[in-house]
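Box S1 | Example of a co-folding query
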Amino acid sequence: MRRFPDGFLWGTATAAHQVEGANTSSDLWLMEMMKDSVFAEPSGDACDHYHRYPSDIALLKALGFGVYRFSIEWARIEPEEGFFSAAALDHYRRMIASCLAQGVVPMVTFHHFTAPLWFTRDGGWEDARSVGRFARYCERAGKALGDLVDYACTINEANVPIMVTMMREAVGVAGGGGKRVRALAEAARLSGGEAGRFAPYLSGDGHAATPNLIAAHRKAYGVLKPLAKGPVGMTVALNDFQADDGGEALRDMANKAINEQFLESLKGDDFVGVQTYTRVRFGKSGVLPVPDGAERTQMGYEFYPEALEATIRQAARVSGCPVIVTENGIGTEDDTRRIAYTRRALDGVLRALADGVDVRGYIHWSLLDNYEWLEGYRPKFGLVEVDRATQLRKPKPSAYWLGEVAKANQL
Ligand code: FCB
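Box S1 (continued) | Returned holo structure for beta-D-fucopyranose
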């Protein structure tokens, strides 16, 4: 079988902080700009997508895609606790309307890594008040935008804090990691917060954040369900965890804590968003290095597109929800490898479909070359190249190739 089911969703994704530019009320803006930052470079103007969204959506449509997954920025919508910016909400309403006017289905993520500075200064997701704070924001945004939202994702990769924390512990820098700890202390000081409370999503304590993130998704699902026009779900970062050489116990531990406790918490949701890039192999005493001779991506991890098939099957089995692949892609300077990677990943989607797994769509990360968090602009995940001096967009061969696959609905 080479055809995808009728109505299969084809799209591309971005996230506000990575493409919009000047996200100045966010926690990461402060952390990127400070002396001795842990970020390779600041996000700056990014791809100026905040202003250029109409032509970027038109480009995505012209390439052949029908869905645009993007995030709305909490830090713009609630830049100070309790102050909700009507102007920011209007902006996102225009953006969603622009999708609809151009015949593109909007999939809106309510939280994609960044948060308002006030939230992170005050304990972020490690403080139990995060649950109510996030629900209040979702309610305001849901009331302003929900009638136009075809698909809603509450939190992007709610399991990333625990994943990052456990990986940090596995390499023996628990609580230490000098530069990270100093940066958090300095960010607390600069933002006028209490030492030890500054807790950003990607570099805080995932053990403390996890129960709040799971509770926040459940509460936000309840809030958004009556407000959003269409399905509501959450996305999960799923590595294909494998065992080698006596690594079964460690693999199972990671699998339980990082993948399955989140997937189990989604039972009854409208969909689960699967976001997969590679596999991680465990040996007896920890994570194994990338096998000798294996190809690596720009992120350092293994080129292993088959991971997607495994995680789709796992997500469907454990959550019981229909699956939408909400992110999959590769950081590479060699666009022919992007095509090879995506073709093999889609082969895996077809195998899962042939076995009756309910997969509803494939959304590629990313539409644009963009700001890859700690790594800055070096990794190239885009189907479309962006000249950051001129902001000119130039689709790569992979963009035309995947656009044709989308239009034909077959591989
Ligand atoms: C995912 C993130 C996304 C991007 C890709 C490469 O974990 O959701 O923002 O950074 O990885």
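The chain is about 40% helix and 15% strand. The pocket of beta-D-fucopyranose is lined by residues 15, 18, 156-157, 237, 275, 327, 365, 372-373, 381 (CB under 6 Å).
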